[in-house]
Specification:
The complex is a heterodimer. By secondary structure, chain A is of the alpha+beta class. Chain A is built from three helices and nine strands. Chain B is of the alpha+beta class. A nine-stranded mixed beta barrel of chain B has the order 1-2-3-4-5-6-7-8-9. Classes of the chains: A alpha+beta, B alpha+beta.
Chain lengths: ~260, ~260
């Protein structure tokens, strides 16, 4: 029994990790407009590009740095996530049961902020009035309206919520609300409720590096707002792959086995 | 059996026509008539370089949704290879039980242009992106002059490059996997499929996509259809998460048992 369980754990871990890190390196496509060093390599420490309207251009193919993948609080001191008791209990339950109820295991989108912290690249397309993020993960996308509109008062509950963005000097500040009541904040299963409000501050530090400063404000699950910083790295000379989760999903093959342990 | 068929049909049609009308969000910078309604007969907007703007929220005209052959010129017939016609008839007879989109897989090209859901076209200097409401998916069309790759990863959307010819955006796609359905009705395609789409914006409210299917494994010659699109003002895409409440796996075992 113990052997069976541990092999199930290994399979689950493989399913979670499989193809993650090198995924976008399969395509070689020189990225136009990238500053390069004398040897032709992308100069990731060059200054951040700017748009014709004077703001940094966040566009490009980005990949989350490995450190926060899975655990949004990996960089925080232990015990600093301000869980409400029920949320901490549910989180521990999810850690103990191998994330068997993870929506993304059923090929549902990760939502916000989880889609920013997965081991797959995403492409940011910045227009003056709209920023779109194309996620490789689950082949999904997200719109951030930057035309001055407010968050809707009664939005359709959604995994990605409803996002509006505005510029605060060189920082693009995105506020998102209108979530449904079952999102996971990260792969480890930190809970969220329909009271969740996420603020993301996108700071492009130079050509190759961008931080997302994320504030989680969910009085339904946490006792106070809490913050994490997610570093991103630009991925030059490659492209998004077509990630079709439903094509060969082993989740339903595995879960009945873990359910009977 | 009849009840099941109706059930399946109802699932396929459910909330299709009204889907995108639930959100009311005024679209800025569109021509309007004196009473404030969008003027869909106004001329097509132009980019600074003179080309028509294709960007916007579009919806396939309902007449062709689901069945490509409805977009053919009258008198034309789909030039099936015999095996492809047999497979098409089988899919019609078995309630499309093997339809990839029933398992929440993306429709691909050209099927995603022919579904009962809107999509948003974004134009960038070097690419055109289509955000599909259907299955919350997207597609990139590279317009930076690159050629189609010789050995692409097989994909449902294939690999798409576009170029302008006068006022028409011509998109060529290849690199498909061997499983694509060309339409909801189940016309087959193979990895030899090459699709050409010509985007022709006729006026503010209307655009045609003239589509040529060239798949020598499944069809005896290339064939063409025209899809009409209607501009969707004052609304937005909804979040369509197919896996959230998919009834396919509950129904299919029953169909198998009949």
């Amino acid at each position: 029994m113990k052997r069976t369980m541990s092999s199930v754990r290994v399979v689950l871990a493989l399913v979670c990790v499989a193809t993650a890190a090198p995924s976008a390196q399969w395509l070689k496509q020189p990225t136009a407009g990238v500053p390069r060093t004398a040897d032709g390599k992308a100069d990731l420490s060059a200054p951040a590009p700017r748009t014709s309207y004077g703001k940094p251009d966040l566009s490009g193919l980005w990949q989350p740095a490995a450190i926060l993948i899975g655990d949004l609080a990996a960089n925080l001191p232990p015990g600093s996530v301000p869980y409400q008791p029920w949320a901490e209990k549910l989180y521990k339950e999810r850690r103990a049961n191998e994330s068997r109820d993870d929506p993304t295991a059923n090929c549902i989108v990760g939502g916000v902020p989880r889609s920013d912290a997965v081991p797959y690249p995403f492409k940011v397309l910045q227009e003056k009035d709209l920023v779109v993020i194309l996620y490789e993960a689950v082949h999904s996308y997200r719109q951030i309206f930057a035309d001055g509109r407010s968050l809707p008062t009664d939005p359709n509950p959604a995994w990605f919520g409803y996002s509006v963005g505005r510029w605060d000097n060189d920082t693009f500040v995105v506020e998102t609300a209108g979530f449904n009541d079952g999102g996971w904040l990260d792969n480890n299963g930190k809970p969220a409720t329909d009271k969740l409000r996420v603020t993301e501050r996108f700071v492009r530090k130079d050509f190759g590096h961008m931080d997302i400063l994320i504030t989680i404000d969910d009085p339904g699950a946490y006792t106070k707002p809490w913050n994490v910083t997610l570093p991103l790295i630009l991925r030059p000379d490659t492209e998004l792959l077509e990630y079709i989760c439903n094509e060969n999903n082993k989740y339903f093959d595995i879960i009945p086995k873990t359910g009977t342990k | 059996m009849k009840a099941l068929r109706l059930f399946v049909a109802a699932l396929l049609l459910m909330n299709t026509p009204l889907a995108a009308q639930w959100l009311t969000q005024p679209t800025p910078n569109i021509p309007r008539t004196a009473d404030g309604k969008p003027d869909l007969t106004a001329p097509a907007p132009r980019q600074p370089n003179g080309r028509p703007v294709l960007a916007g929220l579009w919806r396939p005209a309902p007449g062709i949704v689901g069945d490509l052959s409805r977009g053919m010129k009258s008198g034309d017939a789909v030039p099936f290879q015999p095996w492809a016609e047999a497979l098409f008839k089988e899919r019609r007879a078995n309630d499309s039980r093997d339809d990839p989109t029933a398992r929440c897989i993306v429709g691909g090209v050209p099927r995603s242009d022919f579904v009962g859901y809107p999509f948003k076209i974004l134009e960038r200097p070097d690419m055109v992106v289509i955000l599909y409401e259907a299955v919350h998916s997207y597609r990139q069309i590279f317009t930076d002059g690159r050629a189609l790759p010789k050995e692409p990863n097989p994909a449902w959307f294939g690999y798409s490059v576009g170029r302008w010819e006068g006022d028409v955006l011509i998109v060529e796609s290849s690199g498909f996997n061997d499983n694509v359905w060309l339409d909801n009705a189940g016309r087959p395609a193979t990895d030899m499929l090459k699709v050409t789409e010509r985007f022709v914006r006729k006026n503010f409210g209307q655009m045609d996509i003239e589509i040529t299917i060239d798949d020598p494994k499944a069809y005896t010659k290339p064939w063409s259809v025209t899809q009409q699109l209607a501009f969707q003002p004052d609304t937005e895409l909804l979040e369509y998460i197919c896996n959230e409440n998919n009834k396919y796996f509950e129904i299919i075992p029953k169909l198998t048992d009949r």
